[in-house]
Design a protein that fits this description.
Layout: E1 11-16, E2 37-41, H1 59-80, E3 85-91, H2 93-109, E4 115-119, H3 138-148, H4 153-157, H5 159-176, H6 179-182, E5 192-197, H7 205-208, E6 219-224, H8 230-233, H9 235-245, E7 254-257
Parallel strand pairs: 1-2, 1-3, 3-4, 4-5, 5-6, 6-7
Helix pairs in contact: 1-2
């Protein structure tokens, strides 16, 4: 008798951008040869594909607005592809937002994600409360952003684009200022994958791993080489980690080292 391998249904992967960014940062991910994953970027209202919508001005408003987008897309996609599963990925600022949205959508639809992947972020208990950027001059904020290495030099050098970037960074900082208070009680019952880069000065591994307390399910910890934006700068490797985590039978606590040599 021939035994055929069991193929899991595909996963709709909702990707949440870091502070000051839109879902365009994920525009090339679908073409990187990870057939298990169907990539869908998620924008805040007032940005990217949702730029004509009124902005959400606080944490809970932003969670609701992004959850509505994800839930609507998920239900429509499941109509076309019965059995479709889903997961979330968020980097830095987007990590907290992705988990909050995943919890909201799961509660709203009754469909839990197979996994939420949190990259380059510390949990709410380790977040500094209050706005951090309000008193930072524009030139200094641009210099900090350049040093982090996650923003194209052309954006930083072009006056109009840099002004838009600064505005979005400050808007996101106002939302991030609420994380310590409003997201502290965030708890889920689905698995997490935590990705941390060894040279990340903002979210080193030992400050990323406490996200484990936010889930009652198994948590996978993945340590990689590089700085704060390593996970988004090496999307093929990151998608491989995510794809492995969404396969059936990989929901046990693990520590993984994926050094890139």
């Amino acid at each position: 008798m021939t035994v055929h391998p069991v193929t899991s249904p595909p996963v709709r992967l909702y990707c949440f951008p870091h502070a000051g960014a839109t879902s365009q940062v994920y525009r090339g991910w679908q073409n990187l040869g990870e057939p298990r994953l169907r990539i869908r970027g998620v924008d805040a209202p007032g940005r990217g594909a949702r730029r004509q919508e009124r902005k959400a001005v606080n944490y809970h408003g932003l969670v609701r607005a992004m959850a509505e987008q994800v839930a609507a897309d998920l239900l429509a996609e499941r109509e076309r592809s019965p059995g479709l599963r889903w997961a979330t990925f968020g980097h830095s600022f987007g990590a907290t937002m992705s988990l909050a949205v995943a919890e909201h959508v799961a509660r709203q639809t009754g469909l839990a994600p197979v996994r939420s992947v949190l990259s380059g972020a510390v949990p709410p208990a380790l977040q500094r409360p209050g706005a951090l950027l309000a008193a930072v001059p524009d030139d200094e904020l641009l210099a900090r952003t350049a040093a982090d290495g996650g923003t194209p030099a052309a954006v930083l050098a072009e006056p109009t684009m840099s002004r838009i970037l600064l505005r979005m960074l400050r808007e996101d900082d106002c939302v991030r200022a609420e994380f310590a208070r409003e997201a502290a009680g965030l708890r889920v019952d689905f698995p997490l994958t935590l990705i941390a880069a060894r040279e990340d000065v903002h979210a080193p591994p030992e400050r990323v791993w406490p996200w484990s307390a936010h889930s009652t399910a198994p948590v996978r910890r993945v340590e990689i080489e590089g700085g704060h934006f390593a996970a988004v700068q090496h999307p093929k490797e990151t998608l491989a980690v995510i794809g492995d985590g969404t396969d059936t039978g990989t929901d046990s606590d693990t520590d993984t080292d994926t050094g890139r040599g």
